[in-house]
Amino acid sequence: MDLQQRINAFVKLGDFLSQFSRENIKKKDTVVHNNLFFDGFIHQIKLAQEHNGWFTKKNVLFAIEGWSKQLNNNNIKLWLDKYNFNNEDFKKVAIIMAGNIPLVGFHDFLSVLISGHSVLVKQSSNDKQLLPFLAKYLEYVEPKFKGKIEFTEGKLEHFDAVIATGSDNTARYFEYYFKDKQSIIRKNRNSVAVLTGKETEDQLKNLSEDIFRYYGLGCRNVSKLFVPKDYNFDAFFKAMYDWNPIINQAKYANNYDYNKAVYLMSEFDMLENGFLMIKEDESFASPIATVFYEHYTNIEELKMKLTSLKDSIQCIVSDGFSDSEILFGQTQQPNLWDYADDVDAIDFLLKI
What we know:
Order of helices and strands: HHHHEHEHEEHEEHEHHEEEHEH
CATH superfamily of the largest domain: Aldehyde Dehydrogenase, Chain A, domain 1
CATH topology of the largest domain: Aldehyde Dehydrogenase, Chain A, domain 1
GO biological process, one term: bioluminescence
Strand order of the largest sheet: 8-9-10-7-6-11
Protein name: Acyl-CoA reductase LuxC
GO molecular function: acyl-CoA dehydrogenase activity
Pfam families: LuxC
InterPro entries: Ald_DH/histidinol_DH, CoA_reduct_LuxC
Number of domains: 2
């Protein structure tokens, strides 16, 4: 199976996924093997929601929409164009996936297979309904993938390299356990936004997407704001308002009530609007329904500070602050070449 065959298979998968969006779910006559898979995938989406209360239908479909937009021939070729795919020494690569948001491990899965390797997947128990079904679809559109995709719930064995994602604590375990393997090991990261007070209403509304999408559970969700001294949060809270129905989700509401009670009993200063709390705190990782903030007085000093803390930061959302910044509202719409932790997975996979 050559590179173009692998690309073609994922393009067909993207075409299949394009039938499932937040706006509607509509069957297309042109999608291959649709009679076998369309109704089944609707069922898997339902199972994902039932298994994990954070995986609402809208959030699952948002994730699927994102992948359907990325998996087209032009996008994949633009992503892969700079690499040399002459390697014929294919290996088996294990992936240990997180489960915080739907299909969060799909990019690693895609990267391993598009590189020509076989994949051994250990999924999180929180997100195990969608990917095996999509893997089966891939095997139908490209039968040469059969035998190259394996899922396991047991101990990982007989593999050559590993990509593992987890918390800071599990990362220490991974580093010890996989010390004799070539690896990419990811730890906790959070995303931040740098505000100046000059943001437009649209920019702040877009920021609300970065904060609330997936209930803030992703490493690309903004959990920390850096704001000028004496920043007025009125415009910020006004821009957040469209997300107020989020408090009707029981798991989110329970977290909101619990964290609010903790802050009040601890006599912490915080601002809140009935569905979001903001609290001054130097930490990056804020609890659900909370965004931390910190004041700055000098932009250049803030740049140096964030550079020194880059290993804790996934994304910086801003307008004119950094060359690597992400525009407001775009954190949950990464391109194929936007690698987690800024570690080039394809480069790694082509060298093992």
